[in-house]
């Protein structure tokens, strides 16, 4: 079932989302604080979306849609959960830059975390964020994520090693 926030709806990714996903993955502004990976063709991205296994407990990937106009603006995922631990890693990126700074990531994060805690009965959600990605860090802290550690030289950007923060949110801590 889709997850509804105030500003966004989280829904399954579709093969038709490939062009947007390809465009975001090749936008240096979007990928600035992410692992860019190797260049892909739009066809490879479409193949990934078509052949990807269905969403399941250990691998949930949502497209983030703006409720205002129904446009797909990014992705958010909860990965690696196991029933024995109830711990998942969260990843988010919004590829449509025109939608930045309007509360979409905050709402998408809250909606995905609520989904994780309420529907998946997770106990802990964690993520890493590269030092310097201040807007992302701000959003995570705003909704209750706590900084739990600093990973030294965990990311390489523009030829420089950069630290990253490990952040975690426990059930009951979501704001
Ligand atoms: C980072 C990202 C998720 C933020 O999305 P967004 O929709 O613009 O976020 P929101 O509008 O919900 O919130 C942004 C917050 O950051 C704040 N902010 C903006 N620039 C900031 C800065 N330089 N330092 C600190 N806070 C900043 C805003 O004021 C806002 O907080 P507020 O609502 O309390 O005022 C989005 O830009 C993105 O996906 N970027 C590319 C990929 C990426 O970096 N993903 C995260 C990897 S960990």
TrEMBL record:
Pfam family, one: Acetyltransf_3
Record-linked InterPro entries: Acyl_CoA_acyltransferase, GNAT_dom
Keyword tags: Transferase
Species lineage: Bacteria, Bacillati, Actinomycetota, Actinomycetes, Micromonosporales
Entry annotated with the keyword Transferase: yes
Protein name (Swiss-Prot/TrEMBL): RimJ/RimL family protein N-acetyltransferase
Gene Ontology terms, MF aspect: acyltransferase activity, transferring groups other than amino-acyl groups
Residue ranges constituting the N-acetyltransferase domain according to the UniProt record: 8-172
Organism (species): Actinoplanes octamycinicus
Database matches in CDD domains: NAT_SF (cd04301)
Record has Transferase as a keyword: yes
